[in-house]
Amino acid sequence: MTLTAGAESNSRYARMLEMARPLEPLVTAVVHPVDPASLAGALDAAAHGLIRPILVGPRAKIDAAAAAAGRDLAGIPRADTPHSHAAADAAVRLVHEGRAEAIMKGSLHTDELMAAVVAETGLRTGRRASHVFALDVPTYPKPLFITDAAINIEPSLEAKADIVQNAIDLAHALGIARPKVAILAAVETVTSKMRSTLDAAALCKMADRGQISGGLLDGPLAFDNAISKEAASAKGIVSEVAGDPDILVAPNIESGNMIAKQLIWLAGAEAAGLVLGARVPVMLTSRSDGPLARAASAALALLFARRQAATRPVSA
User: Fold this and answer.
1) Is the pLDDT of residue 109 over 50?
2) Do 68 and 195 belong to one domain?
3) Domain with 99 in it
4) Structural domain contains residue 288
5) What is the torsion angle, in degrees rounded to the nearest 10, for the CA atoms of residue 194, residue 255, residue 162 and residue 174?
6) Does 101 map to a domain?
7) How many domains does the chain have?
8) Has residue 56 got a pLDDT over 80?
9) Model confidence at 3: pLDDT above 50
């Protein structure tokens, strides 16, 4: 297990990991873990009691990755498949069969995995699937969620409503009762020349009408006055959200991806990630993720899944 106690205790992810520890681990289909990093990430999450992995992919390649990582796979269930496409399909089948409660990305492209998840025979729900980054930014006083930076390229207003609701639901799972949601644009005023400002205003009104629930929304807000009280004050913005957001909602995938990666690579942020809106949470780990970020992604999935189960209405 490569996550040290010192690294954990110094991170804002520590609280997340502490919250997850008492919970029953998620049975997780780990898709195509054929490189040492993705395989070790899954095994570390298992060692922390966050998941119970089922390794889905070519047995010989997984064994080679285990040997390269110096890991023992004794007693870990397998689902042998010929290649990554088949592994993604097999993971979806495990969920349908009730044998897996979550999915974790291994060494394959996100598009390849998500194609199986959102296919007609996949794991669709009435909610649009979207990705949420949970960032631990050293210069920000609390966890910061950014969405959508990985799935929806140019989302419609209706898709953005689902994107916002998914992020709010995840924040609730971390004990944030009424997350503050900043809807980002290039400016803080509404103009017909920028669709992002119109969408932001519409999303706020949708929240007023109960079409989005559980959060406090404001927008459009430019990044500076969303994240800084001083910048908001200089612009004359009076807002409970400006300067104190829990969630940043990007206008499109390009801006969301740039924001997240700038914070990771320039501000030293740790980044956990999760896809929500499907029947089960999907952990999207990256080859560049460190052990803490991989464990945090698993903790996010566990907290979210168990809260959803606890709050799901009981059928008559």
Assistant:
1) yes
2) no
3) 1-124
4) no
5) -130
6) yes
7) 2
8) yes
9) no
